[in-house]
Amino acid sequence: ADAAKSAETAAQHAGFAAGSSGLKGVHMHLHHALNCLVGEKGDGFDADELNPCKATGGAIPNTTDAARKAELEKAAEMARAGIAETDLAKAQADASEVQKTLTGE
After folding, report:
1. What is the C-alpha to C-alpha distance for residues 27 and 38, in angstroms, rounded to an integer?
2. What total number of domains does the chain contain?
3. With pLDDT > 90 as the criterion, what percentage of the chain qualifies?
4. b/e per residue, 6-16, with b = 16+ CB within 10 A?
């Protein structure tokens, strides 16, 4: 399992979500990011959505550093909020925050 790679992939998908022009695309890419963050047994994992981190595992369960794990948990919480959001601009903003949290920008 590679927590850093999973977090990097999650950040990429959060970026795809932030750049999506429709709510469906934002939600889809946020699901991909969330799947990478939480792993197959995690809160919000959706087996019906793509899991781009199937080979690397979930970033949260594979992270041992407490401070980094807290950042990843925060990103996952924002991803879940974005998935629940029905306003396109707000969902895009959530996705952008997920990406920033994961990349440390």
Report:
1. 16
2. 1
3. 97
4. bbbbbbbbbbb
